[in-house]
């Protein structure tokens, strides 16, 4: 609606019959009000319908009588503005007393105010949904960014104190905890030791410094139970009355205690304290578990680095996934064989990840180099890949491309690594046929070998994409159907490389020997395969095998 309406309305509010007829036909609501008393002079059917009425219910009545909820509302305020300003006034807002939203165009014409409006409730809800989706995406991005920053900070640590400082900082910045602590389990002395606590309340540090593992308290209980605890002030005081002085000294109103468990063994405890009453949401608890998972790996690495000559080798072994997911009818078995003694380590790794949607993700890779730097870089890649994999449901090629972006941001100098990522997939039709699909992408890694139940073995050859760290080009997905009884073998180049032969010949030798994986115990088959290879190349070897058992 725009401009005055001479000839359409008289000073007494009479409206040209033709204009009235036109107003009745339009889909927008039309209402004419006396500018002094806000008496309804005219309203069309669409306008009355906003309140579930008909025009005869409104004409000649005061706005305050027929729409009492409008008095004092934004609608009322905007009408007064229209009367005062005289020009075209527009606004969008709720209809007082209803759950609807309208977009209004109003203008004073002589002694009347003419309003046209349309129902924008659906648009408003869509806008709210869009805003919530945007906020959700921002939260997801923030969550991923914080986890990646944490993984980078933790993989750069070398001592237990370094790990504790990084974890405490993450707890305070990411969760708003008043203070936090990382404790280490001393199995020999049966103590929970806290080397770094951050800023405790005066006198509180002595209360938490060294605690007996069999003593009372939510932290030691969480370790014994093997699960996180979230206690408010009431549960702390009723559940652990003998420690009331501890809660008072530290001003504890809410406490989170999360065990740090590596390979089924308690290595530490992450504790967070808040001074106010609260309840962590499920999303916050999931993030806290991720923090604990990353902290566990970093803490274990630091503890192992503290050992003498075998520390570096044990470090790399600890980074490998020892508890591979055994999902449905998939049997996962891995082997890692170091080639060097002392404190030399390599960058070979494997991983099996159960994604949130139940899909199994297989990973094998090899960082260039044979030193502690290579192991640290491997840890960075493994943690980053895990974080990226669970954050978004990407095909392997896109996952490697995203990992490439992380690699380029981790260090000033390049990290070079080969990596193969594979997903085990199955739709309903394939399940009925007893066939599963493996979708994989290869960043410069040796190709997988597929062994059928009858012993037939073939190399899943495909042009490999560039190594991680090169930073150019995009990677490609490849797909193969895998029948029941087959075994898929992923490996690093230490299994097939020989000083006196080329890589292709080594892969062909592996294909010929891999038929032994067709039946029998899969773990024993991998051991036999390693024994036949003999480690001739003097390099680390990582193997990850998956047997596709028949589905029930």
Automatic annotation (TrEMBL):
It is an enzyme of class 3 (hydrolase). Pfam families: GAF_2, PAS_4, SpoIIE. It comes from the Bacteria. This is protein-serine/threonine phosphatase. GO terms for molecular function: ATP binding; kinase activity; metal ion binding; protein serine/threonine phosphatase activity. Its EC number is 3.1.3.16. Gene3D superfamilies: 3.30.450.40, PAS domain, PPM-type phosphatase domain. Residues 15-61 form the PAS domain. It comes from Kineococcus rhizosphaerae. Keywords: ATP-binding, Hydrolase, Kinase, Magnesium, Manganese, Metal-binding, Nucleotide-binding, Phosphoprotein, Protein phosphatase, Transferase. Primarily acts as an independent SigF regulator that is sensitive to the osmosensory signal, mediating the cross talk of PknD with the SigF regulon. Possesses both phosphatase and kinase activities. The kinase domain functions as a classic anti-sigma factor-like kinase to phosphorylate the anti-anti-sigma factor domain at the canonical regulatory site, and the phosphatase domain antagonizes this activity. It catalyses: O-phospho-L-seryl-[protein] + H2O = L-seryl-[protein] + phosphate. InterPro entries: Bact_Sigma-Reg (IPR052016), GAF (IPR003018), GAF-like_dom_sf (IPR029016), PAS (IPR000014), PAS-like_dom_sf (IPR035965), PAS_4 (IPR013656), PPM-type-like_dom_sf (IPR036457), PPM-type_phosphatase-like_dom (IPR001932).
